[in-house]
Amino acid sequence: MERHETSRRPRVQSDLAPFLVRISLGAGFLSAVADRFGVWGPAGTPSVSWGNYQNFVAYTAKLNPWSPAVMVPALAGIVTFAEAILGVLLILGLMTRMAALFSGMLTLIFALAMTAVLGIHAPLIYGVFVYSAASLFLAAITAPDKWTLDALIAKRGSHG
């Protein structure tokens, strides 16, 4: 009979991978939001995607040609708000599974929109499918890593 490999995996390894995935995803969302508000520099600066919110709204319009023009600013605002909240939740490890699931769905929709409008190369080069897969992987983990508020809340709940 084969022994399941995860039973021999050191606990730090099984906690470290979800921790790093969670922090990377959260930081990625917050970095994208920061870019929209010029935190990383103005438009045209190396490694800056938008540099200002108006450029992000224009990009949102480009990726959503089906959307009426009047709805584009609201869509850009909803996505920005969602990414900010999801980023914070993931970094804190609060409602981690739900945040990871919504992150996975949001980034999958983004990847599909990018593919439909820009072709497959754009979401591949920016790792959007990887981002989505990592989010869904994190959502599938049964227990939060020990460095989350979820774990702290669960621990306190078991003592009371």
From TrEMBL:
InterPro entries reported in the protein's UniProt record: DoxD (IPR007301)
Residues annotated as transmembrane: 16-34, 70-92, 99-118, 124-143
Entries under Pfam families matching the protein: DoxD
Keyword Transmembrane found: yes
Keyword check for Transmembrane: yes
Keywords, ordered alphabetically: Membrane, Transmembrane, Transmembrane helix
Coiled-coil annotated spans: none
TQO small subunit DoxD domain segment(s): 78-156
The protein's name in its UniProt record: DoxX family membrane protein
Native species: Alloacidobacterium dinghuense
Lineage: Bacteria, Pseudomonadati, Acidobacteriota, Terriglobia, Terriglobales
